[in-house]
Design brief:
mainly beta, 2 helices, 13 strands
Length: 196
């Protein structure tokens, strides 16, 4: 399935708004953070709603910063749907933070599945504007592991920013999640926050 995600000009200083389109032109979901119409009692949440304004889910933002057993920093975000945690999205960094090519990657856990969103490598270099989606991800991803090679060679989906910094194209197979649009919009919102 093809999706388009477009970030709009913010209405408030720290606000962000994004639209998820099915195909090229059918608006399906809206995300907003720090916008004037959010309730004052909802700090730290990205609201995910239908175009009519009906709230569907929220992403706890910013996430919970922790350190893994190996001492590597990570940030976990909870995607809340139907008054319960529907998915956990965890942002990891590679152990060697001095590597100029080191980039964040994301693990998505939802509906008993674990997926990874990894930077696509082109000519041995990570591309901050392209991610590949891989299913059946291990609990811990090690640099230079076979999973990384397999994922880069045959991803099940991808996220890319073709030309404009505020637009993303997403490809993901149908039927993998009950709420794929919520997961994708939340994930792309987090990717959009990465530097570079």
């Amino acid at each position: 399935m093809e999706y388009g995600i477009r970030f709009l000009r913010p209405l408030a200083e720290n606000g962000q708004r994004a639209h998820l389109y099915v195909g090229q032109n059918r608006l399906s979901l809206v995300a907003d953070y720090g916008t004037p119409w959010l309730l004052h009692g909802e700090p730290g949440k990205v609201r995910l709603a239908r175009p009519s304004g009906e709230a569907l889910a929220s992403l706890e933002y910013p996430g919970l910063k922790t350190t893994s057993k190996g001492g590597v920093p990570r940030i976990s975000y909870a995607l809340i749907y139907d008054h319960a945690v529907y998915a956990l999205i965890t942002q990891h960094t590679w152990p060697n933070l001095d590597d100029t090519d080191a980039a964040s990657y994301f693990m998505i856990e939802a509906e008993g599945q674990r997926w990874a969103a990894l930077n696509r490598e082109v000519n041995g270099r990570s591309r901050p504007d392209q991610f590949v989606l891989c299913d059946n991800a291990p609990a811990v991803v090690e640099p230079h592991a076979q999973f990384l090679d397999d994922c880069q060679a045959a991803p099940v989906g991808q996220i890319q920013r073709p030309t404009r910094a505020e637009e993303y194209e997403v490809m993901m197979p149908d039927g993998r999640f009950r709420q794929p649009q919520l997961i994708l919009l939340a994930l792309v919102f987090l990717i959009h926050q990465l530097p570079g």
